[in-house]
Structure formats: C-alpha cells, structure tokens
Amino acid sequence: MRTTPISRRRPLFGSLLALLLLLAAVACGGSGGGDSTETSAAAGTVQIVMSGNQFQVPATVAPGATVTLVNKDKVEHSVTSTQSGLFDVEVEGGETKTFTVPATAGSYAIYCRYHSGMTGTLVVG
Question: What is the pTM of this model?
C-alpha cells in the first residue's frame, strides 16, 4: 500500500478548506441574509398571500411600497386596516390585486372582514 507523505497532504487539505469556506460565503450571500420574503421584497415583488384563511405577511415593507395581494383560497377575502379608513381592499377567490401601503412607518393591524379569525400585522419601516 502506498501512502502520501504528510508534507504533500497539508497543502491539499488547506486548499480544500479554503475552497469550502469560499463556497459557504458565496452561498450565504453576504448581504445580511433574511428570509425569502425579505429577499423578494428587496427585488420588488412584495406580496401578502391569503391561503387557508390566514395571512402570510412579509417581515417588513418599505413605506409607500406597492404590495400584491394574492388570494389562493376559493372565497373572497379583504385586507383591512383596523385604523378606520386607512386601507380596505377586497380580493376575490383565486385573484390578485395591488395596493400602496402607508407612507408612515409603523405596525398596522390587519384583518379580513369576512373571516373573523383572519388577522395579522403589516410592519412598514
């Protein structure tokens, strides 16, 4: 059986380790990370999804951003602010609509007028 001297294995090990670290750094993105919702928000495709009578809201939305409301259920939903008159958008089952979030940063409680258990928080900041 032939063995490789230790002096020849160390540079190879170091090179492989450096390559693995480089690949890990590239895979992590290096821009602060975040979940896929945040990433899509940065790319300009901010969505609030309604599915299973629940809201799927991004972690944060930029002030004044346009948000696409996606209703994946078969029934109509609304995205309504608990602050009277701020926003109230109805979305038929299987359809999408867009609306502009408030220009003022803050947390906005939302609910569906048709389904009392359907609530969430829209964070603008």
Answer: 0.65
